[in-house]
Design goal:
Strand content: 25-35%
Helix content: 25-40%
CATH topology: SH3 type barrels
CATH class: Mainly Beta
Structural class: alpha+beta
CATH architecture: Roll
Distance between the termini: 26 Å
Largest sheet: 5 strands, antiparallel
Radius of gyration: 17 Å
Number of helices: 2
């Protein structure tokens, strides 16, 4: 969970500071997604949560630039890399 100090700092930030924080968060998300894309390959078994919070397991069929196509028993899903977890 978020550290209380961080929550207080965000609460007391100006609009410009919040914009800067938002940009830093987005940069970090992009880095995590790129690292995940490098780690995953076609044929890997992965899990992710759908919009309802249900954990879905499938196999990577195709890698696109930012998303991967994952085959599941429910059909194919186009999933962002940062939402996937490799099943070991």
């Amino acid at each position: 969970m978020v550290n209380d100090t961080i929550a207080v700092e965000i609460h007391n930030s100006s609009i410009n500071e919040l914009k800067e924080i938002s940009e830093l968060i987005q940069m970090r998300r992009d880095k995590i997604a790129k690292d995940t894309m490098r780690e995953l390959k076609v044929g890997d078994k992965v899990t992710f949560e759908n919009k309802n919070g249900k954990v879905i397991t499938g196999t990577i069929r195709k890698k696109n630039i930012k998303r991967l196509v994952v085959d599941t028993p429910e059909g194919g899903w186009n999933v962002p890399a940062n939402m996937l977890t490799l099943v070991e």
